[in-house]
Amino acid sequence: MRGVRVWARLLGVERAIVEDAAFEEETGSLVVRVRLRRRDRNRCGVCRRRAPGYDAGDGRRRWRALDLGTTKAYLEAAAPRVQCAAHGVVVAAVPWARHGAGHTRVFDDTVAWLAAHTSKSAVGALTRVARRTVGAIIRRVVADGRAVRDPLAGLARIGIDEISYRRGQRYLVVVVDHDTGRLVWAADGRSERTLERFFDELGPERSAALTHVSADAAEWIERVVRRRAPEAVLCTDPFHVVAWATEALDAVRREVWNAARRHGETSLAQDLKGARFALWKNPEDLTERQHTKLAWIAETNEPLYRAYLLKEELRMVFALRGVDGIRFLDGWLAWARRCRIPAFVELARKVAKNRPGIEAALVHGLSNARVESVNTKIRLLTRVAFGFHSAKALIALAMLSLGGLCPPLPGR
Q: How much helix, strand and coil, in percent to the nearest 5, is found in the chain?
């Protein structure tokens, strides 16, 4: 009896009765034969409810277990079928494996944990399974985790963004919960139809419960949110607004640089080309050399320096926040409209158009910072995993690692 308990503990099948174990010379693997306990028999493999037996199945079935040292290990048991009222004729459930899986639950959870912390190639080499099998296991574990804990439950404040995950305009739409920082939903695509799928899964009741939505001022996101969650406050991400100002500043720099080249002022053009980072960086992050470069710009090119000040003043709007930020925004708009710098006059129009969302961000202090953090981690996942054959595999791994669905290592 002690030996039986040891085998059950080693293979993670303590809810089964171990009959015997044998080493197969031809395959070089250990096969442990088990049978179900009486209370676990005749249960639907999908819903795990009791169901009448249908037949004895196609003989016996094997499940890959974690290796024992350097030796592959398998569980072997009968594979009867039952007739479930809800799911029809299906293979009966077993406590040591998920429905439809060829690996034990302990094996699946170990592979999923490893995939969340290392590359697919390393996981495949360590566990001796194919890369596609790793992806299938991840999807299976994530689906099981979703069944236990719905990521869409209790959402109130969310952030929506898009991320490029492959060349050729391949994008994911990601949704992050501001209150937990977790990724709650992702889908392949970048369109209204893609985002509509999120609200379809969320449902009318939970959509109505959303209080705040942050986004990057993309019109297609705004249209969907206005239709599906009209009561939610839509906040425009401050980082993207400041990025607009940085782009406008760079347009002014390029214009001055091109003018210098046209007039044969080669030295001036070269100095302006090297001034890009001094103009882009925040004042508190400038090096001594960049401070000197900025002072040189202030003396030699007033329009470019004025464009720099406009960029910094817009950044200050979001540093102040609240009522003070809104007042500062009024002053910035007045200055930008009469600055006689075309790029910033156009920027003033863009900011005025998106003012409701910008004011909401100032009042509620909401940004897409959490979403951008998740996006950065998704990019890291794509690099660590060395590519994906499908968006579904990437989404499953992202939900596993960033959605709180990663299981603990078995036995830990």
A: 55, 20, 25
